[in-house]
Specification:
By secondary structure, this protein is mainly beta. 4% of the residues lie in helices and 49% in strands. The chain contains 2 helices and 35 strands. A hairpin with a 5-residue loop joins strand 3 and strand 4. The radius of gyration is 26 Å and the shape is elongated.
Length: 425
């Protein structure tokens, strides 16, 4: 009789059913059963000196456990087993979760990165999933970096480098000298593309660059939350220039922050598709990291900027408290669709364009579709929609706005009425 973990088996006709609990019972010729313990869990603490366990649980350990984690990781690669971290704070350098087909138990766990990483232009994430990583599932993760003492801007919390089928729970970062979550993919080969990253809510405070930055790849993210100062963007989809980076595809449940950017630094790369259920952006949340990030946009930041993308769909967009125009479209976007745009106390001081939504530069062939626009303009000189050059093509359903004009330099329809000419509407 062979009883395996997680299954019920019984001798035929015996009427006896037994659930195994990590035991394999092998019948011998003498009808005795020899028990062999089979564990589906490998504990990281097994590889760490016992003298350090109490400090890890207390969150005070300064013993570098990176090599111990890697030794335990090697035991679970390809097995389907769980690499278990007991609750506590683990003091690490750069942890690499390579290989495939295993789980990482991280409930109640914090990874604190040791200081001293040089600004050498390389990436030094607390946790990375490299190119050979595939089918790995991790729990919630808390990350603490060294924003004040490290150098450069690439000491990310978690970096996913061309890895496939990675699932992570909620991710929280604090004092990160880079991005809380960074993804990377290239189209130079099939192996270098990053696919099917799934995460819970990604949040952070005192982040040098971004909460989430995607320099290529494909991700489903439950939410993005700005929990404190952020140096650059809450969400930045931006393949780098000149490196055949992978166009970004992302599905996001919600974003709560202050600055979002969907773009491509490479004019040859057009991002693919973005679907975001709800975006809530408030200019009062704008605050630079400490130490300050030099590329911080400041009080006159644009809440949402879009260019070089095939499709952006946002269910609900709320923007408030932006002195300048809060929404900007740039070049080579094809389709932007918003369910409801609700603006409040925005475009109150800017004096050049005086608009809520600006097509910056020459309008292309893209179509801006908004089912409903709600808000009050600061004064009668301002408007809701405007193109800087050429005509912005729009399809607007209901426009429940007051205080100024609907727009200028537009083509298409507002409320079912076709627009004519370049004048004010």
């Amino acid at each position: 009789m062979d009883l395996r973990f997680g299954k019920i088996s019984a001798a035929k006709g015996s009427g006896l059913a037994i659930m195994s609990i990590g035991l394999t019972l092998t019948a011998t010729a003498s009808h005795c059963a020899v028990a062999q313990v089979e564990s589906d869990v490998v504990s990281v603490l097994t590889y760490i000196p016992v003298a350090q366990h109490a400090a890890i649980r207390a969150g005070t350990s300064r013993f570098d456990v990176t090599s111990a984690i890697h030794a335990a990781r090697d035991k679970v690669q390809g097995t389907g087993k769980t690499l278990l971290f007991s609750p506590g704070t683990y003091y690490v350098g750069e942890v690499i979760f390579s290989g495939s087909n295993y789980r990482i138990g991280t409930e109640g766990v914090t990874f604190r990165q040791k200081p001293g990483l040089a600004g050498d232009g390389g990436t030094h994430p607390i946790i990375s999933f490299p190119l050979d990583a595939n089918s790995i599932r991790a729990g919630n993760v808390r990350l603490i970096g060294n924003i004040a003492t490290d150098r450069g801007e690439y000491s990310h919390g978690i970096a996913v480098f061309s890895a496939d089928n990675i699932t992570i729970g909620d991710i929280y970062g604090e004092n990160i000298r880079g991005d809380v979550l960074y993804t990377y993919g290239r189209v130079t080969s099939e192996a270098e593309q990053q696919r099917n990253l799934v995460t819970g809510v990604v949040s952070g405070r005192n982040i040098y660059r971004c909460i989430v930055a995607m320099a290529g790849g494909d991700a489903k993210i439950a939410g993005i939350v700005q929990d404190g100062p952020v140096g650059y963007r809450d969400f930045d989809a931006e393949p780098n220039n000149g490196g055949a980076y992978q166009p970004v595809t992302a599905q996001i449940g919600f974003i709560r922050g202050s600055v979002v950017q969907i773009t491509s630094d490479d004019p040859k790369i057009i991002n693919a598709d973005f679907r975001i259920d709800r975006v809530d952006l408030d200019g009062r949340r704008i605050a630079n990291s400490t130490p300050n990030y030099p590329g911080h946009s400041g009080a006159n930041a644009i809440a949402l900027s879009i260019n070089r993308v095939a499709s952006v769909r946002i269910g609900e967009l709320n923007v408030q408290n932006y002195p300048s125009y809060p929404v900007a479209l740039f070049d080579r976007w094809q389709s932007v669709r918003i369910g409801t745009l609700d603006f409040r106390n925005s475009n109150t001081l800017e004096t050049t364009y005086k608009t809520i939504v600006l097509q910056h530069g020459m309008a292309g062939e893209g179509l801006l579709t908004i089912d409903r626009i709600v808000g009050r303009l600061a004064d009668s000189s301002r408007m809701v929609l405007r193109s800087d050059e050429g005509l912005l093509k729009v399809e607007i359903g209901q426009m429940e706005t007051s205080g100024g004009a609907r727009g200028v330099y537009l083509s298409g329809r507002i409320g079912g009425v076709r627009l004519k000419g370049k004048g004010f509407h």
